[in-house]
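User: Can you predict the 3D structure of Phosphate/phosphite/phosphonate ABC transporter substrate-binding protein? Sequence below.
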Amino acid sequence: MVQRTLRKASDNRIAILFVLGALSFSFVFSFCSREEPPVQTTLAGNERILISGSAAMTPLLKTLAREFSKKEPGIEMVFPPDSHSDAGIAGAAERKYDIGAISREMSPSEKEADLQYLHLAVDGMIFCTNENVTITNLTTNQIRHIYAGIITNWGQVGGPDAQIALIDRPEHTSAKIAFRATFLGNDFRVDPEAMVIERPYQVAESIQLIPYSIGYTALAEIVMEDLPVNVISVNGVEPTPANIQDGHYKFFRPLGLVLSPAPKASTMKFVNFVFSETGSKIIANSGYVPQRYEILVGIVPEQNLLVQSQRYEPLVEYLSHKLGEGFSVKLKLLPTYIEACRSLANGDINAAFLGSLAYATVRDYVTVLARPDYGGVSTYRGIVFVRADSGIESVEQMRGRRLVMGGKTTTAGYVFPLYYFKDKGISDYGTYFSEASFVGTHEDAILAVLEKRADVGAAKDLVYRMLVRENPALEQTVRILAQSPPVPSNAFVLRKNLTNPCFECHQRRARRTIVEEEISSKMDIALTIKDSLLGMSQDPEGKAALMALGNADRFLETTDSDYSELYGMLDEINLNPSDLLNVD
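Assistant: Sure. Here are the predicted structure tokens for Phosphate/phosphite/phosphonate ABC transporter substrate-binding protein:
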């Protein structure tokens, strides 16, 4: 067996030397052939778009360009010689290229350049072997040990008794960067016997030619070319687009485009096409996972968590459709308003439905857009209430009782009761009541009083009235002692300066001849979302979403001045709402 293994190892070395020679000749021939002038305008007065950068992206971009040219024959797509992501970024920054192609994340210094980045797709990376290796799965540790030179024979991992021929990529390539980030780490030393392949397309060629070899390459290349190689699962997870999209398969790299802040009209026509439904289908059919710009909308449960999610899901689907194929609007459920506020301040979410105090807490970070209207009601009041059979009819009778409030970042559950108590001469509610506590939701506060776990409660009147509609007998069980001035009901807020590359908004303009300087490369997300919200009542899908939202009639435009009553109460109790961001 030892002699057989040594003989196979010798055969592998001969094969590797042969392949290296063949690939070197191929590379030189390819390089020389690409020394031809890269740009030749074929039609007089033809517009052209120059794209270059990462060689890993060239096949996909050329496929997209061919389909785009069928729609826009007057625009010539030109691909100068490709190289690496660095060259794509530099070329776009120096305005040598209209679009730079990159297959890795931009470095901090690169992000400072006067460029905008468009995340195009996720490129799944796979391990594959020569077809004579019959194993189907490797663990992370086995992969590490193979590339460290600790595991050197396929028999050590359940394969044939043959020496492993190791194929690697140079350190500067996006494939190696992703490999290190996912499996190796920065200090890992790869077996020096590994054959390092420079060009991405040569990796799959080498694996096909070299017996018992293993390497890593793009899933899309295998999909597009239907190459005869053995694809390996990692930790039992197959490298499929679905597994990459849902996060189960971890080995991938980002593919993106970089372009100037004010691209040409022709460039934006191509960008529009790339991020259109047609472009996304081409990307997906090529083996990549198309990118949709994600807007996360935070919601906080005022009632049951599942019920709250079901109410808002049709609305975010409606907004996704209105923003277009390049965008995806999703819900993110958050336990409290303070978590929603912190997530907005930190940029972890892009938008939220916030109560009035929560909005005031993050007003420096967000713009308020609109709020729902229910039969002419678009505001709410805070209420202070007791059980009807409690015998409590005044503040004086509350002394020594148990107080429960709906949340420390709510107007109804915090600001109004403090304002009310101060107006009645109670400066320290903590000592006036025997117990004072905050619960998760307004519904929780109401139930605590009804179930006699508390004597006095503070909550939102809209939640109380919703519970009464579900159980009319509650109205005879609860006594409302005070209510606040009206403040805006939960409104849709969006982080300030949130802009994304404009895809759909250029299509209309691109159909007519205009001065290029008139074209902005970014869309006003806030305006688009606000217009979509305000137009819901005139749209069939919008009407269905309004109905799911508790039979709302429409959305009303909302501005900061609508919160003047709240600001007055905050001044009276001397509370700076931004301080609540630091509350535990």
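The chain has 22 helices and 26 strands. Residues 2-33 form the longest helix (32 residues).
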